[in-house]
Write a structure and sequence with these properties.
Elements lengths: L2 E7 L3 H15 L4 E4 L4 H7 L5 H8 L3 E6 L11 H8 L4 E8 L2 E8 L9 E3 L4 E3 L5 H17 L3 E6 L5 H17 L2 E6 H10 L6 E4 L1 H11 L10 E5 L4 E5 L16 H13 L3 H16 L13 H14 L2
Helix pairs in contact: 1-9, 1-11, 5-6, 7-8, 9-10, 10-11
Bound molecules: nicotinamide-adenine-dinucleotide.
The site of nicotinamide-adenine-dinucleotide has 21 residues, from loops.
């Protein structure tokens, strides 16, 4: 039986995840959904946001549906999301940015870079080590090349090699791999790339970049599709896969049934695609489009539908289009 670990996490995770889980359940009542609790809420109650036990539970699932975790900027509180990405070696973070006229796939290296977790913090000086390795770069650019081949065949390498020695290595390995694979590619400094993606989104297909650059670039690019409420993501490794919205726990709107669940429902569609149900994934995307075309949307898109109501509208379309 296909088993899906469901992590609500914190904040709006408690609202958007049930909406996405219900969509999955409507299509696949045979899936075995089991909850795993991690996050800031758990840290407040137990002093530990994510123990080995939870990591082991996540590893038993065929796929993980993940909400968002509040990460407080405190010296000794380590990001749960980073811990899970590393523990499950989810090295490729795929963040699609798609609308009429453009279809971009940001491929973000997810296990090293500036989120290496190698840090020192003193009263007057704090450092974070930015790590770029040959192994980490080869595997992420190879994932990006595979995707580029399935799509239009264009690859853009985003880096800051003019300033960062670590990105000289990243850029050179990416260029060598792309050249050997025979895909058409260009490379751009990440700051110029961030503006150009907004100005000329149709010029991009697959964009590969390092961890923090990919994180920021995808938030920026979400502007093109209507904001963070809409952008899904997949975290894929060789053995495990986790699907989560690009956005965080949004404490400013949590608990009010106003969060947009589309990013999470789209992440659930990516999960279906990963599990081989391409038809189901397509049906979910179509149902979201149909609900939006009926003028039903949440507050961030100018509407008044609640998180729950939007999710129910998607399920009702899925049932009609059976
Ligand atoms: P955020 O993404 O939570 O929110 C940024 C802005 O976007 C907020 O105004 C929020 O209301 C809005 N927003 C986000 N998702 C939305 C949705 N579905 N519908 C409507 N509006 C939405 O980022 P933040 O405020 O910088 O961070 C809040 C917390 O989330 C922090 O603790 C941060 O560490 C954490 N975070 C977690 C993840 C993750 O779990 N992967 C990612 C990013 C941030």
């Amino acid at each position: 039986m296909t088993s899906i670990a469901v992590v609500e996490g914190d904040g709006i995770g408690h609202e958007v995840i049930p909406a996405a889980r219900n969509v999955l359940e409507a299509l696949h009542p045979e899936y075995d959904f089991f909850p795993v609790e991690v996050g800031f809420g758990m840290w407040e109650r137990t002093g530990c946001p994510c123990a080995d036990k939870e990591i082991d539970e996540l590893k038993t699932a065929d796929a993980i549906l993940f909400g968002a975790i509040t990460t407080i900027p405190m010296k000794d509180y380590q990001s749960v999301v980073l811990r899970i990405r590393k523990a499950l070696d989810l090295y490729a973070n795929l963040r699609p940015i798609k609308a009429d006229g453009f279809d971009i796939m940001i491929v973000r290296e997810n296990t090293e870079g500036l989120y290496s977790g190698i840090e020192e913090s003193g009263p007057d000086r704090a450092t974070t080590l930015r790590v770029v390795t040959r192994k980490g770069t080869e595997r992420i650019v190879r994932s990006a090349i595979r995707l580029a081949r399935k799509r239009s065949g264009r690859l853009t390498i985003g880096h800051k090699a003019n300033v960062l020695k670590s990105d000289v290595l990243f850029r050179d390995i990416c260029i060598a791999e792309a050249t050997a694979a025979g895909v058409s590619f260009n490379d751009k400094y990440i700051d110029a790339l961030a503006l150009d993606v907004l100005q000329h989104p149709a010029a991009y297909d697959v964009v590969v970049t390092t961890n923090i650059f990919g994180d920021i670039l995808s938030d920026v690019a979400s502007y093109l599709v209507g904001g963070l409420g809409l952008t899904p993501s997949a975290n894929i490794g060789d053995r495990y896969a986790l699907f989560e919205p690009v956005h965080g726990s949004a404490p400013d709107i949590a608990g009010r049934n106003i969060a947009n669940p589309i990013a999470t429902i789209r992440s659930a569609a990516m999960l279906l695609d990963y599990l081989g149900d391409k038809d189901g994934a397509g049906r979910v995307e179509t149902a979201i489009g149909t609900v939006l075309s009926q003028g039903i949307c949440t507050r961030d898109l100018g509407g008044s539908a609640g998180t729950r109501e939007f999710g129910e509208a998607v399920i009702s379309i899925l049932r009609k289009n059976r």
